[in-house]
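Target protein
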Amino acid sequence: MAMELKDKGTERWSGAITNLTETASNLESLQKLILKKAVFVDDETFAKASLSAEQARTIKVLEQRVETLERELDAAITAAAHARSEKRQAEAAQKAAELHAQEVTRELENTTKVFELHMEELRSKQEEISKRDEDIKLLEAIIQTLGGKES
């Protein structure tokens, strides 16, 4: 869409520049003709020639302004395209970062589950050890009791 607008705008500016160039050329030709053929001109002709010369200068200034505006437009279009490209890159980087964060979160959750399982197993082992300690103490007490009866 931007390229279509740019092409249409360029066509219009090109047409305007062509018209201005032709007008300037016509004015220069008229001025040269007046200089060659006229020795004396009346005030009205001189005023028209002066007006034509002024218009030629104005046309030249306007042509330069049009060229400057075309360059600025091209630069703005290029900058907009560059900004769109950077935006797409930033969005892709953000999506990659979000996926990485999700992956890290899943890994952390899995690690937490493994840790909980290990803690549960450790508690179970500690309970088993405590039960065996109690059994050993009971057996020691029984042995001492039995050993005490024999003596």
Observations:
- The mean pLDDT is 87.
- Residues 2-150 form one domain.
